[in-house]
Amino acid sequence: MISLTSPQFIAIPAERKKRILEYIEDNGSAQIKELSVSFSVSEATIRRDLSELHEEGLIERTHGGAILSGTKTIAELIHSPNLNVQLDNKKAIAEHVSSMIADGESVFLDAGSTTYQIAKCLTNHRNLTIVTYDLYIANTVNFHSSATLIVTGGIKKEGRNLLTGALTVDFMRNIHVDKAILSVDAVDVDFGVSDSDYVQAGVKRLIVGAGDKVFLAVDHTKFGKAQFAKICDLNEIDLVITDDGLDSVYRQRMDRDKIRYHLATK
């Protein structure tokens, strides 16, 4: 994470705004109070900086802070998993996943905050073909100039930065990639992998079928849970990548069932 407190940047408005924007890009959001303390300037100064960034179309103002322009609506940030929840673990998972992807491969990235972190870790990979239906990934991550980014067809869901519908399904049925990266709401060793959204679960089933290798990237808090719509059994996943906070109970159960998994460390 970037350092916000370098003295040479604090007194220069242009440099301070640049650092504020970099911070929001890294973390998904920022609060006025934390920025004020980090830069040793008044909250009024931070508000002016955020207003100027907003006028430039780079961020969206929220109550008490800001998020990146083009990110999820405030209502969704409140009612859905936040980009900052388990952030350190998601970054560790992302670095581990990216280390298993080679230059020149084709990769499907599921929608979600963990796959967003994975996308950010792939920006130095060369000649990748990245496929996604996550508009936030497509619009905010700057992949290497040699990479090809493909966004599925589909209908943008109101208030969400992802595509869905018949066009998305048709697209998914007609592609094959080297690595498919899946991210889900819930993992139960016995029930399998599941999601709270029945329609999106259908798309995720197609992701599982589209990859030569399928990686499930989830932090440890998703384990021991089951949601409404089942996506697949765990033995349909080639590799589960989670963090080292995973309870030993789930490790033992996956060992018992011969489910391959890696534990990413911060």
TrEMBL record:
- Which terms does the record give in the GO molecular function aspect? DNA binding; DNA-binding transcription factor activity
Recite the UniProt keywords alphabetically: DNA-binding, Transcription, Transcription regulation
Q: In this record, what's one Pfam family?
A: HTH_DeoR
Q: Which residues form the HTH deoR-type domain?
A: 13-68
Keyword Transcription tagged:
yes
- DNA repair: is it a keyword of this entry? no
Top-level taxon in the UniProt lineage: Bacteria
PROSITE patterns from the UniProt entry: HTH_DEOR_1, HTH_DEOR_2
Its name, as the record gives it, is Transcriptional regulator, DeoR family
Q: From what organism does this protein derive? A: Hydrogenoanaerobacterium saccharovorans
